[in-house]
Request: fold
Amino acid sequence: MQPERKTKPIFRVDTPYSTVEWPPISPDHQEKILDMLCSLLAPIGDHRRNFIIPSKGERAKRKEKKIAKASNDGAVAMDTRPEETSLKAPSPALLSDLTIGFNETTRHLENLSFRSSPATQTPLAGKILPHPRLKRATAGPQEKDDEATQKATTNDDAAAVSLRHVSAIFVPRSDQPSVLHSHLPLLAHTASMARPSLPPIRLVALPKGCESRLQEALALPRVNFLGLLDGAAEASQLIELVREHVPIVDVPWLAHVKQANFLPLQVEITQCLVPTMNKAQKRKMQAEGRSGPAKEEEVPKRGKKDRSDLA
Reply:
């Protein structure tokens, strides 16, 4: 006879603002996009290997400075370093159309996302207000010259408008933990709203094991994020391929947020079966010590010594 089972409700609470899913892409298109991207980045890697000497780190730089100060001809040694002569070599034009690394790519998307907010746009002039990171720090009393303030504001507006749109972001998603790239879908969607007249930003998840190929193509020790800015003439074929085969990032709940609609908390109730035990089974488990921690044995209290024995 099977033991009777009771149902026990288990509650799970979730936010209505669910995680945004990455756009799907077939493995064949992933490989094709990766091949075109690596061939596009190859001239940058060749330039780094031929003209730029890899940095030895901050510790080596401090050591060189100490040696240069100690020697009499330190100034001459610092002026004739090979790193200084390598800066004269022209870099590929595509390098100015890329955002390489986590910080640079995320910061660029944050600036675009900030400008997509309605609070950052002036209804009269139709201009986009600058992000706080682009604003210049103003110091001094309030009696500062109005012309200098107006000039700084004009420069900030020019910097805000000149912020370029991003065509695509390439991420070796399977080669890194999800905490590094989980913010990208929502951030890319809101950043696309800053330029509604341009095509939305595409998120491209590259195939597994592709990070080594990107490192070889760029001659860098690590490549985890790569953004391709809009207007790169050399990457026109790659951008067309990405826009054709990579869907747009979709955020379903963002429309409710724009309309200021209340979204209730999501509560999921699951009924689970729990086996019941009779009294004999409970006594058996208590005897075996599996029902809980065993009770501590009572230690008899030590009474006072009889002083008559010591007499």
